[in-house]
Design a protein that fits this description.
6-stranded mixed sheet; Aldehyde Oxidoreductase, domain 4; single chain
Length: about 725
Amino acid sequence: MTRIGDPVARLDGPAKVTGAARYAADHHLDGQLHAVLVGAPVPAGRVTGIDRRAALAVPGVVAVLVSGDLPPPAADFARAPIPPLATRHVPVQDDRILYHGQPVAIVVADSLEAAEEAATRVVVRVEPAPFAVPDTAPIGTPSLDTGYARLAPLDVGLGDLDAAVRTAATTVTGTYTQPARHNNPMEPSAILAVWADDDLTVYDAVQHIFGVQATLAAVFGVDAERVHVISHYTGGGFGAKAYVWPHEILAAMTARVLRRPIKLVLTRAQMYSIVGYQPLMEHEVTLTAQDDGTLTGIRHDVVNTTALTEDYVEFGSVTAGALFAAPAITLSQRVRRGNVNLPTFLRSPIDGPGTWALGAAMDELARATGIDPIDLRLINHADREPSTGKPWSSKKLVQAYGEGARRFGWRTRPRGGTRDGHWRIGCGIADATQGQFRFPARARLRMDLDGRLTLEGGFADIGQGPHTVFPQIAGSVLGIPPVEIRTRSGDSSLPLAPPSYGSSTTIGVGAAVLDAATRLRDCLAELAGWLPSEVHCADGELRRGTEAVAVALLLSRHGTPLVVEGSFGLPGGAEVDAGPSDVAVRTFGVVLAEVGVDPDLGLVRLRRATGVYAAGRIINTRTARAQMVGGIVWGWGKATMEASHFEPELGRWHSQNLSGVALPVNADIPPLVDVAFVDEHDELAGPLGAKGIGELSATGVAAAVANAVFDAVGVRVRDLPITPARILGGG
């Protein structure tokens, strides 16, 4: 019998590798038209005219829509919350140009080739205006008019940091930067929209099905039930598909105007200008400590770039208020506004950037005090959340330090700078942590007369394994192998599910599935005339002590299938929270890395890595390990390769396709990435005892690598990525 925690292989793997899984752009409808967006050629100004004649002359072109051709959003749109709406700025509604590539026209044709050809023939006349380069724009306080700035406090001040600085035995201060990075999922954002009278159906590449439903309903002023969202599989997202972006609104508007199904698939270049990315971030970190390494003060000030339309805030300072104990903590968040499209989450937001800056600064403090980096962390372990004083729902970070040190051989590691041929060897360590989001969820189980079980929920699959984990949860209660459980998902007509971001899917939907499975088992007990507390299921039977009855027999006697719904709710009916209000909920871990650095060429190679995590109950050890290995690979890319540069003279992203993106390949990663989990069951986080892991895996890696580089060659790199030029240039 399969149980929670068993290493069940991915049940949806065959469908994905054989092409049977259908993604948004794979859907086709009779009479559909293809839409292609025409982008603004300048980053600021206004459109003075658009010549459509050459485009309309291309055979197969049906229309070229410009400002005035599309309906304005309904009044409800002004009240649509941000997020899940990404931005209230809907292009092709007026003549304003706010960023390069902003859609200014929509070409529609009966073939993609005709639409693409016609789009090149649209002549856009503009009146350029001076533009603000986001990287160097003035620093400002984020506005609370949109939801991004309300996700956490913009400023935190605990204790007297000035006094801590004056009296400190050791103070380290540094500026740590990380460039903008773009989400480049395998599947570009895509949507197929069709209207039937006042009912809208969209096949969309999304991470939050019900967020799309509610937002599009607001755009058109219709009840949410009249918007049907289908997203059976999402080919990666990393945050770029978390919210509702302008292309989704424009496609649905175009479909309404032309009364034909409209398919819109963003090009790779448009993935840089239509949807979000992680913004450039600057971190100012100060740590003060006593002679014995005890922290007396932490300051972490963060500035990130954002658009002129909304203030997106990447709360990288939050980690500094959650990881280490200190009597004085000062945190702040500010923004630089420029003529650029709006940023968004990218895998491991908030704590990914936060662990980079804080983890690197802690290594500098360890060097300054002469204390081993693990010992420094043990000295400053936070038994309660530092910024709030709340007790932890669970925390086994100390155990993770110990197991990580043992597995890596930290205490007996090679001395920094040890030679291996022309390579110098270095080792580094950093903390991994991620905050937790919880959303309400529902799930439905249907057991047919033959005992076959179907699991239904409106969750999106972005590749994290829900088609395996949720059947595993249900099967562990009902004694059914997960491979025999059918799953229906990715549809707004199914029970409510939370978004697939914030490492929240398993906590919410998993708890609802557990509840539904328990209710179904209780129903079977009632059919047998037994008390629910007395029974368990195994091998297609309901058992009580030495007695057993076939589930199929019970159902045949009952005469109708059993259908039950389970739920997971939040206190007070909240739509989202970070855990119970009286505790702090976080995941924790430690990342250790050994690198080789060529001091003559500045090359860096990852030789080995270990990650040990305290992340609540692990539902599937196989898929969980895969998540963590993938996160470490992701973190290596962030540390040494990835960067998106804004060209200040042209006012646009410099490289807008995958040919200019450096990503880790097999040759960059050692054969074995060592991953382990500390045994932990967090009942306060939710009924499953589980917490989120998908984003935790990518935190801490960049700092561990940078610290290992310093250990190898004595070069402190404070600006990501760690390129040969930075190593040879001394940082």
